[in-house]
Structures are given as structure tokens and as C-alpha cells.
């Protein structure tokens, strides 16, 4: 359990009490992310039941209060607003297929949220997250640093898990990122990936696997198809994104200066402008402080540029 000094007195408001929103609330309670957690959903019975269930476990987690309502007033004064509300990805759907419906939800929700939490950081989890992050920026007029998408934090975690399993090492010792879109055009940054400061290209440890072209292709395919695999089996992804979002919230509320591949507005980053996508960023209490010039091969840089074009095309098709 974190000591009292490491527990922020801040308030987190989570919009959407579906499987993702409720699991984010659960992860936040377990990790002691905030002293106050608010859950908002238009479905009064659903949000009430989730809050009741979570409150029944407060004895077993760091001290916190958790409230819920179908009235947006429950979000008042939040330091971070996490938006998960939106149409759920169905088997066979891409994240981009959700764009039109979820942009419409944002148009309705954002003015109401701004009225009660005008000074908050806004963390977008709703898919397609890069498009929704950009749309939120445009609809709210907030400074770019304060509008953040969960981006490829989860994809990078999947990437590291699969590399770790292939090499039979602890996932905590793997450093590797997925950049670009949280979706089909995302890019694995193999050239900067390492295990215990050993570049993957130089990895040669007896009894601890091999990462040739075949293995790399299989790992990346599994990263891209991970959500579809989970959705086909149980209908939604929730646990890993819940933990990933809690980690982003810790970086924000505890002013950690943590490096995370969140989605944010790029301006002049490797020639990429006016689009939200993921690259490793320094994340702290101000939001996204800076985007890091992580080394990329020419192929990787071209892939990130192509990913930016894919996201930008979707944004333009929605009239933004």
C-alpha cells in the first residue's frame, strides 16, 4: 500500500461506467491513484450498481471515496477527467469504424464536462483514441498539453509482454515502444528496443530465445490483433486498459515526469503537424510536457508519417 505522501489528494472523474470505465475505477482504487473518484454514466442503474460494488471493497484498498451518478455534477472540480464513453468495438470492427458515433457523443458531452471541470486535464480512452483526442482539442479549445489520449500505452505493454515471453525475461526489463495510431497503422520501434540496455539486434543469450524476422513479424501481428482476440472471446478488453490508464493517471497526478507513449498533438515532430498520435512523451502534472525525439530507422519514421496520414484522413472525413 502506498504511504500517505505518495497518495494524491486529487479527484479523478471517469465518464462511462461500462467495462472499461468501471475497471479503470477499480484499478485506481487498488493503486491508490486518487483520494476521490467519481463515476458518471447516463445509465443510472448501471453506474449505481458499479459504485455500490466498488464501495463494498473500500476496506481492502488505500483510503479513498468513490461516488457515482447520472448527473454530470458528480464530476465537478475534477483534476483529471477520463472519457471512456462511446460505442463499443464489436467483433470484425476496426477502431476507426467507431469514429462517427463517438464524435457525436463527444459533441454532446464535452460542453457539460467543461462547465463542471474547466481546469481539468482530459484523458481520452474512447476509440478511435487518436481521432477523439484531436476532436476534443478542437471542441474544447484547451491547451494541447492538457488533452491526452491513452494512445499506444497499452499496445506498447502488449509489445513488451510478447518480447519478454519470446526471450524468457521479465517484462519489466524490456524497453520497447509502439508509435503512431492506436490501431492498424501503428508502428513497432524495433530499432530502439532493448532488454537491460542490450539492443534487441544484439541480443544473444543462450537459453533465452531468438528474435529473427519471423519472430518479429509474429509478435507485431499479435500486438495489432490483440484487441480482436480478446473481444472475440469475451466481448471487450478491460483489465489491461484499466491498468494502463491508472498508470497514466499516476504520472499526471503525482507529477512523475514518466515517459509514456500517449497520444498528443504533434507540431513539427519529424515533419508531422496538426494530428494526434503516439510517441514517447514526458508526462507530468501539466499533462504532456514534451514529445521525445526517440531514434527511428528510416522505415519506422516513414511508417509513423503514414500513420499520421491515416489519422488525419479520418479527422478530415469527420469535418475537422
TrEMBL record:
Residues 11-149 form the Lactate/malate dehydrogenase N-terminal domain. Beta-D-fructose 1,6-bisphosphate binds at residues 160, 175. It comes from the Bacteria. The active site is at residue 182. Residues 152-316 form the Lactate/malate dehydrogenase C-terminal domain. Substrate binds at residues 89, 95, 127-130, 155-158, 237. Keywords: Allosteric enzyme, Cytoplasm, Membrane, NAD, Oxidoreductase, Transmembrane, Transmembrane helix. Its EC number is 1.1.1.27. It catalyses: (S)-lactate + NAD(+) = pyruvate + NADH + H(+). One of its GO terms (molecular function) is L-lactate dehydrogenase (NAD+) activity. Allosterically activated by fructose 1,6-bisphosphate (FBP). The chain crosses the membrane at residues 12-34. Its main location: cytoplasm. Pathway: Fermentation; pyruvate fermentation to lactate; (S)-lactate from pyruvate: step 1/1. One of its GO terms (cellular component) is cytoplasm. One of its GO terms (biological process) is glycolytic process. NAD(+) binds at residues 16-21, 41, 46, 86-87, 102, 125-127, 150. It is found in: Cytoplasm. Pfam families: Ldh_1_C, Ldh_1_N. Belongs to the LDH/MDH superfamily. LDH family. Catalyzes the conversion of lactate to pyruvate. Homotetramer. This is L-lactate dehydrogenase. It comes from Sorangium cellulosum (strain So ce56).
Amino acid at each position: 500500500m502506498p504511504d500517505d505522501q505518495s497518495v494524491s489528494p486529487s479527484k479523478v472523474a471517469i465518464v462511462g461506467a461500462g467495462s472499461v470505465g468501471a475497471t479503470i475505477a477499480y484499478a485506481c482504487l487498488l493503486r491508490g491513484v486518487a483520494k476521490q473518484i467519481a463515476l458518471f454514466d447516463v445509465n443510472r442503474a448501471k453506474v449505481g450498481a458499479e459504485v455500490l460494488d466498488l464501495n463494498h471493497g473500500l476496506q481492502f484498498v488505500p483510503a479513498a471515496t468513490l461516488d457515482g451518478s447520472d448527473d454530470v455534477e458528480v464530476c465537478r472540480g475534477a483534476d483529471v477527467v477520463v472519457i471512456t464513453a462511446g460505442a463499443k468495438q464489436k467483433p470484425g470492427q476496426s477502431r476507426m469504424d467507431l469514429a462517427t458515433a463517438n464524435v457525436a457523443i463527444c459533441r454532446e458531452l464535452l460542453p457539460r464536462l467543461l462547465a463542471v471541470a474547466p481546469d481539468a486535464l482530459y484523458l481520452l480512452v474512447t476509440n478511435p483514441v487518436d481521432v477523439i483526442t484531436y476532436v476534443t482539442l478542437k471542441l474544447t479549445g484547451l491547451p494541447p498539453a492538457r488533452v491526452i489520449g491513452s494512445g499506444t500505452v497499452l499496445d506498447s505493454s502488449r509489445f513488451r509482454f510478447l518480447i519478454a515471453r519470446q526471450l524468457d525475461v521479465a517484462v519489466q526489463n524490456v524497453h520497447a515502444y509502439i508509435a503512431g495510431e492506436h490501431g492498424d497503422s501503428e508502428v513497432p520501434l524495433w530499432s530502439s528496443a532493448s532488454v537491460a540496455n542490450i539492443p534487441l539486434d544484439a541480443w544473444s543469450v543462450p537459453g533465452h530465445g531468438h528474435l529473427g524476422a519471423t519472430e518479429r513479424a509474429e509478435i507485431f501481428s499479435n500486438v495489432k490483433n490483440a484487441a480482436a482476440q480478446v473481444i472475440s472471446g469475451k466481448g471487450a478488453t478491460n483489465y489491461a486498459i484499466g491498468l494502463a490508464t491508472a498508470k497514466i493517471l499516476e504520472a499526471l497526478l503525482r507529477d512523475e515526469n514518466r515517459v509514456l507513449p500517449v497520444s498528443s498533438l504533434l507540431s513539427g515532430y519529424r515533419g508531422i503537424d496538426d494530428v494526434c498520435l503516439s510517441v514517447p512523451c514526458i508526462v507530468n502534472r501539466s499533462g504532456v510536457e514534451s514529445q521525445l525525439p526517440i531514434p527511428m530507422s528510416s522505415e519506422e519514421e516513414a511508417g509513423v508519417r503514414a500513420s499520421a496520414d491515416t489519422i488525419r484522413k479520418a479527422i478530415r472525413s469527420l469535418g475537422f
